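Chapter summary example.
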Amino acid sequence: MIQITDQDITFVVQGPVQASGDRTQISGITRECLSSIRSYFPASTIILSTWKGQPHQGLDYDQVIELDDPGSNIIFHDGKPQTLNNNRQMVSSHYGLKAVTTKYAVKIRSDSKLVGRQFVDLYCQYADLPRQESFSFFNQRTLTSSTFFISSHHGRPVYFHKSDLFDFGLTEDLLTIWSSNWIEELSFTLKQGYKARYTTTEQFLTLNWLSKLIGKPLKINNLTGEDAGLGTDFWPQFIANNIIVDAPEKLGLDVTERFYKRGNLALEYDLSDWLYLNNKSGKPRDTKRLYRSYKNLTGSLLRKLKS
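The structure predicted for these 307 residues follows.
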């Protein structure tokens, strides 16, 4: 089993310290975030990666990186511009991780906090399970939160919808996810249908770094049913061999109340799904999975009726 000490880990807390006109934030949450890390990991290093002019003075960190704000980026939904903060997250995450000198790192948003340290134990328990060489793209598995790690939508599979709130693993692997390959101007064309949705931020962020790993450009236009030409089995196998996932409360992560009542909780991958993908357990049949099956079944039936 992998052994990791607190001294082996650097926490990169990325994002603004205070709310702005285009991003709401709980008052004082960054202070709580930093204090929670220091409480649970007193021997670990904390890097705050934020923007120039942010009021970081007096906060509990070991190093601060003050960056020029890259501003919003634009994507297009059938020609209509959408203003997003993808590159802000990527820039603060990348340059924070570039400053890490320890073997392992955590990427955590400045509006989340820790309520425990279970993610380290979970990682040590499962990171070195046997992997299929053909699907092993990271040097070692990473770990992430189930928050918005979506498996399906109204009866159709969803691919590449990895959560972007929290990552833990080898620093070099996190730098693969949070690289300097910024999001360029993207255009998406929606295929009309029942509950049709455009590609989400989580999906095109994932495809951005996955394209580099695969060695060819990858793109999808719709939330559901598009595998970017990799085949329907690729993404489940990629998860099994590269990304451990579980619910934030099982990791010791508090995503705060803005995400407590997020929709589609039953559709999020978690450790039970992950163990099943790795053939370490039977197909889970708990309440969450039953409700997921119900949502997928009703979605499929409604889609047929409306078509």
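To summarize the output: The chain has one domain: 6-305.
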